[in-house]
Amino acid sequence: MSDDRLFLVTGATGRTGGGAIKLLLERGHRARAMVHREDDRSRALAEAGAEVVVADLHDLDGMTTALQGVTGAYLCHPILPGLVESTVIFAQAATEAGVRSVVNMSQLPARREAASNAARQHWLCERLLDRTDLLTTHIRPTFFAEWLTVSWEMRDGEGYLRLPFGEGRHAPIASADQSRVIAALLVEPEQHDRAIYSLHGPVEMNHRDIAEAMARELGHPVHYEPIGVEEFSASMLERGHDPHLVQHLRSVALDYLNGVFSGTNDVIEKIGGRPPLSVEDFVRAKRADFQTSGPRFVPAA
């Protein structure tokens, strides 16, 4: 296809969207960044060469405008209410605009029988997009490596992970690795139509292994303290997190204990072009984020 293709990235100031925009621009592609408001982050995108459009995933008219002239789009909705409605709006607006392809951010636990309302809705939205004429690719990441920064507590010079994950295992995946996959799928969607890719980091670990890897890189002790799902959920609600998000986190914690998030593969390297970051690599790159506690840590009683 011609080099004048235009790619829309929703959630362009977020982790995966922001990384995808940067990669598209670096590779000489036209990219349109969809943002909720104009601020320093959106201005930085414009200065980097992106077209910036202010729109809302839940507004049909706004999405119609955002999708005009677009060849391919990355669709990413936060873990908040409204996913199904926004996907319906996107599908209709994209069809009207003649968009050719979509990369859909889903979740690893997305399935019909999911206890998480968000995960079940992601499964429904996958099926909806599969019924359109869009070339459609779904990505299902395991827990982001960034989860470690938001659930981390720094106390008396030592780190703590107080999480309801028992001895379950997963291979943490950095958003930067996901961004490379997203950008590659946008540019070459044909061979990936109707594919569902689970995205994993390089090494499957439990949280004791993760804490040890973090400690080696940070140079101070890091403790993993398993807690109950009820304590975790209550702490999230007390801190004012959206009940939809808390219901999701509670449900996927049980999924995690049952092995739903386990496993690893070579999708990141094959599609994204290089091996994914290890936990040590991620901590080294994000060392500043581990100097203070994250916004979702569960304090000790």
Structure description:
This protein is an alpha/beta fold and 301 residues long. It is built from twelve helices and twelve strands. Helix 2 (40-48) links the parallel strand 2 and strand 3 (51-54). Helix 1 packs across helix 7 (175-187), helix 8 (207-218) crosses helix 12 (279-285) and helix 9 (229-238) packs antiparallel against helix 10 (243-257).
Summarize it.
It is globular, with a radius of gyration of 19 Å. Helix content is 41%, strand content 18%.
Shape type? globular
Mean pLDDT: 96
Given helix and strand content, the structural type is alpha/beta
Strand fraction equals 15-25%
Question: What's the SSE pattern?
Answer: EHEHEHEHEHEHEEEHEEHEHHHH
The total count of strands amounts to 12
Detail the poorly predicted runs: none
Strand order of the largest sheet: 3-2-1-4-5-6-10
Largest sheet: 7 strands, parallel
List keywords for this structure.
12 helices, 301 residues, 12 strands, 18% strand, seven-stranded parallel β-sheet, alpha/beta, three-stranded mixed β-sheet
Topology summary:
Layout: E1 6-9, H1 15-26, E2 30-35, H2 40-48, E3 51-54, H3 60-66, E4 72-75, H4 83-97, E5 101-105, H5 117-130, E6 135-141, H6 147-150, E7 152-155, E8 158-163, E9 169-170, H7 175-187, E10 195-199, E11 205-206, H8 207-218, E12 222-226, H9 229-238, H10 243-257, H11 267-272, H12 279-285
Parallel strand pairs: 1-2, 1-4, 2-3, 4-5, 5-6, 6-10, 8-12
Antiparallel strand pairs: 7-8, 9-11
